[in-house]
Amino acid sequence: MIDYSLYVITDQHLQGNRTADQVVEEAIRGGATVIQLREKTAHSRHFLEQALLLQTITQKAGISLIINDRIDIALASGADGVHLGDEDLPIQYAREIAQKLIIGYSADSVETARWAESQGANYLGVGSVYATSTKPDAGFPIGLQRLKEIKQAVSIPVVAIGGITLNRLNEVLATGVDGVAVVSAIVAAPSVYAATRQFRNIIDNYRMRTTCQP
Q1: Active-site residue, from 5, 38, 146, 197
Q2: Distance of CA 194 to CAs 20, 21, 25, 187, 199, Å?
Q3: Which among 90, 172, 180, 184 is least buried, having the fewest CB atoms inside 10 angstroms?
Q4: Is 40 a catalytic residue?
Q5: CATH number of the domain within which 64 lies
Q6: According to the model, what pLDDT value does residue 168 have?
Q7: Number of domains in the chain
Q8: Within the chain, which residues score under 70 in pLDDT?
Q9: CB atoms within 10 A of CB 42
Q10: Which is catalytic among the residues 5, 77, 106, 128?
């Protein structure tokens, strides 16, 4: 079973002068449970080199590495999974050529979420919950109510994404999601470790409170 509770996504434009491996190592130390390598503009060779490096780091730490969009990079690097959207290889074909990969899918409606589950997705990235500058083409924010409806409509894990900050974290967790995906609030922070640790503490405290409720 994969712990999706704190899913950290890299972004080369937000990490400043830090390398992807530096960001990932700090995030893992801070409590990240899944890492996604997202390289929207990198050439294939550079993308693969980054994936191979991060796979070594995540494998040693015992957590999963997910590759955004590119199933070829996921397979070549030995990553644990790939995250797909509606412009990427359809889930059914991805599953045919990569039977053992974790396949995530982006969803913003109950209909899309149910469809993705029926096609064999292992988890959903749902959002954008709030407006976010890291994905300006994401459309209107779906909000907390629709996030909750999607979570209740499927049986696979749901990871909320989009504009999630420390101040919003508790209300997102209250929808019942299995985890949160964070980009700028961690990757662009002065200390990736400290920011991740703050997210981890809130998540752990929330889980403890809900577990102890009668």
Answers
A1: 38
A2: 17, 16, 12, 11, 9
A3: 90
A4: no
A5: 3.20.20.70
A6: 98
A7: 1
A8: 134-139, 214
A9: 17
A10: 106
Domain that holds residue 189: 6-212
Catalytic residue selected from 64, 70, 77, 135 = 135
- pTM for this model (two decimals): 0.96
| Structure tokens, 131 | 């407006």
Q: Is 69 within a domain?
A: yes
133 three-class SS: coil
- Active site (annotated) includes residue 38: yes
Q: If DSSP states are collapsed to H, E and C, what string results for 38-91?
A: CCCCCCHHHHHHHHHHHHHHHHHHCCEEEEECCHHHHHHHCCCEEEECCCCCCH
- Residue 66 sits at φ, ψ, to 5 deg, of -110, 135
Residue 1 lies in a domain: no
Instruction: Answer yes or no: 207 catalytic.
Output: no
- Give a yes or no: residue 61 inside a domain: yes
- ∠ CA 164-51-69, nearest 5°, is 60
Task: Give CA–CA dist 118/130, Å, rounded.
Answer: 27
